[in-house]
Amino acid sequence: MRAVFLAAACVCILCVAAICLFLLVNGLPAFGKIGPLKFLSGSVWRPGSGAYGIAPMILGSLYVTAGAIALGAPLGVLTGVYLARFCPRRARAAGRAAVNLLAGVPSVVYGFFGLVVLVPAASAVFGGSGKSMLTASVLLGLMILPTVISVTETSVRAVPEACYEGALALGATHERAVFFAVLPAARPGVTAGIALGVGRAIGEATAVVMVAGNQPVIPSGPLRGLRTLTANIVLEMGYAADLHRGALAATAVTLFVFTLAVNVLLALGRGKRPA
Amino acid sequence: MGKIDIENLNLYYGEFHALRGVSLSAPERGITALIGPSGCGKSSLLKTVNRLNDLSEGCRVEGRVLLDGEDVYGGGMDIYTLRRRVGMVFQKPNPFPMSIYDNVAFGPRSHGVRARSVLDGIVEESLRRAVIWDEVKDRLAGSALRLSGGQQQRLCIARALAVRPETLLMDEPTSALDPISTAKIEELASELKKAYTIIIVTHNMQQAARVSDRTAFFLLGEVVELGDTSRIFTAPRDKRTEDYITGRFG
Q1: Helix or strand or coil: residue B185?
Q2: Per-residue pLDDT tens digits for A235-271
């Protein structure tokens, strides 16, 4: 029996190793041919004329992720706290079911929702096509909600009751006890939830492609369209060849490094938590 | 009349009758010890005084709990004011996961104190009263969770004192501590009774004998015997009290 478990574990680890290996084998040569600095900091992406600069896509990914967190994190944390400590028991079950449903909706459905609801709405309010950094941020903000909500709820509920009672015993109101005693105690968990949200937002491709506009230029404002790293790969991989294909693999390497950085930061933060 | 008077108190958790006709008076500037085996309702009684029992589902109270003659379950008393006047120290030290300073300032801030200079004063005074100032004065910004168990408990006492309560409820405050920390807390309690009315729940009979002025012996939700500590421990009137304090059960 032990051998079965071992084999299963080995398959998992092999998969990760294989992904890393093939990503690097395919992507690194392009780094060399284009020049790492030129590739990462170049602001022109025109594969037809040999210009491979992914700075617009790096910034695009960072912008929409930041936007998604700015919108989704406060909303998600507040909702999680509400489910954990404010809402009546019956409403909690309904709320949780809704959150789980939200987590199960496929990306492409989110994208479709963005396309038929958010894009026209943005267009009506702000003018233009409606496909923009803002629209993509709002959509991604919605998509990270289930993660942030459920992790927040779980960690708030995991805080010992003694913390809450201690605050009440000092004459604090329920609100103050929850937000200033219990929530700080749950902070490591909440931070982890937000970091998972960052990971999800930066790695999302399908939904973003449908609402972001996808121009490979550095956006000059939140109402301009942009292209993310993921979108760059999804849009062009189908027909790319030679160096173009390598440059897309190198884009994937860059994306991989970003998600790795999020994970490492998360692990470091976890290690530093006081006992 | 005492500082806290409990009159014919009955407490129910749903069907369970946790306290049965309890009457008890805690004299001002004195320590009243509640002793008895586990599950006899001592801690429930404490939580009834500051109405922390309100959190328990299906909890129902009959009878009166008077603070300075005013019924805490009457409509006239604001629950936040009640809890400011009646501080509580828990069985397990429960500092908040924040700095030492913020722990002590939590209560005053809850009651609207914002000025830094005022808070500084309250924090120092409270930590001094809880005899922990000298140990923490150089690391007020450090996390309270890095203190030892005994220090954490004294910090919790300082935190309770910071809202300037009149009485302190202590729920087995030393049961999670080593003997040296226990001695420090007992010494502190003896000092604090000069200014506060204290009710302490304890499993430790020697502790009750050492620190308290009055003792109430609880059994199955009832007060079996109540009187001066010296008298209870030397000449108990009830056979059950005698059996308990001589260690025949419990």
Answers
A1: helix
A2: 999 998 899 999 999 999 999 999 999 888 888 877 6
Where do the domains of chain B lie, and which CATH numbers do they carry?
4-95+165-245 (3.40.50.300)
Among B234, B180, B178, smallest CA distance to B205 is for: B234
d(CA A242, CA A26): 10
> Which element (helix H / strand E) includes A49?
none
Place of tokens 């490492």: A264
- Gap between the Cα atoms of A115 and A109, Å rounded: 10
Which residue type, as a one-letter code, is found at position B161?
L
The verdict on a CB contact (< 8 Å) between B110 and A168 is no
* Cβ neighbours of A274 in B, within 8 Å: 97, 143, 145-146
Hunting for tokens 């405050």 — which residue is that? Answer: B173
Block means of pLDDT (10 residues each) for chain B, 250 residues, are: 91 92 93 91 93 91 93 90 95 95 97 95 95 95 95 96 95 91 92 94 92 94 93 92 84
CA dist B103 and B105 (Å) reads: 6
| Cβ-defined contact of A171 to B107 (cutoff 8 Å) | yes
Sorted by where each begins, the domain ranges of chain A are: 57-240+256-272
**Beta bridge partners of residue B17, listed in sequence order:** B12
Beta bridge partners of B41: none
ipTM over 0.90: yes
**Domain spanning A57-240+256-272 has what CATH number?**
1.10.3720.10
- Say whether A165 and B90 touch across the interface (CB within 8 A): yes
Separation of alpha carbons B107 and B113, rounded Å? 9
Helix%, strand%, coil% for chain B, nearest 5: 40, 25, 35
Q: Across the interface, which of A163, A172, A173 has its CB nearest the CB of B94?
A: A163
Q: Which residue of A has its CA nearest to B162?
A: A170
